[in-house]
């Protein structure tokens, strides 16, 4: 997860609180932050992730910058890589990830891996830009 700019990120605390409330409910499966380029979507997602991590009942956070990815397969590969790197000490270790993913398409590998992690917050930064090019 990239660094938080914390107190330097001003004027968005109400928006951060709304997104945190949305992603920490049990009924939220997808939360999309959208807007014009340069308005601060990425930093908002980073600040939300840091705020969620400060909770003692924290979600597992996986951050993947995917704006340079040209295909869904590249995005899936990046997500799997980030999950195996950042979750191996919590809910999902690398051996289990390999067992879950064996013989499946990349999209199904991601589905299988995500289904094995409790309380996952997956941040795909730049996904809109990546999918526009494919």
Show the helix and strand layout.
Layout (H helix, E strand, L loop, with lengths): L12 H11 L17 H13 L6 E6 L6 H15 L7 H8 L4 H10 L4 E6 L1 H7 L1
Helix pairs in contact: 1-2, 3-5
What structural keywords apply?
mainly alpha
Shape: globular
Q: Could you tell me how far the N terminus lies from the C terminus, measured between alpha carbons in angstroms?
A: 25 Å
Helix and strand composition category:
mainly alpha
Count of distinct strands: 2
Share of residues in strands: 5-15%
How would you concisely characterize the structure shown here?
The chain is mainly alpha-helical and about 130 residues long.
Please provide a written account of the structure:
The structure is a single chain. With 134 residues, the protein is mostly helical. The protein contains six helices and two strands; from the N terminus they run ααβαααβα. The chain has helices at 13-23, 41-53, 72-86, 94-101, 106-115, 127-133, and strands spanning 60-65, 120-125.
């Amino acid at each position: 997860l990239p660094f938080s700019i914390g107190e330097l990120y001003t004027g968005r605390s109400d928006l951060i609180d709304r997104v945190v409330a949305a992603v920490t409910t049990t009924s939220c499966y997808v939360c999309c932050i959208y807007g014009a380029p340069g308005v601060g979507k990425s930093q908002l997602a980073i600040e939300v992730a840091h705020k969620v991590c400060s909770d003692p009942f924290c979600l597992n956070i996986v951050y993947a910058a995917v704006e340079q990815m040209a295909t869904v397969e590249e995005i899936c590969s990046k997500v799997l890589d980030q999950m195996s790197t950042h979750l191996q000490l919590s809910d999902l270790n690398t051996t289990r990830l390999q067992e879950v993913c064996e013989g499946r398409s990349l999209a199904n590998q991601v589905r299988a891996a995500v289904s094995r992690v409790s309380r996952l917050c997956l941040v795909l930064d730049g996904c809109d830009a990546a999918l526009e090019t494919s």
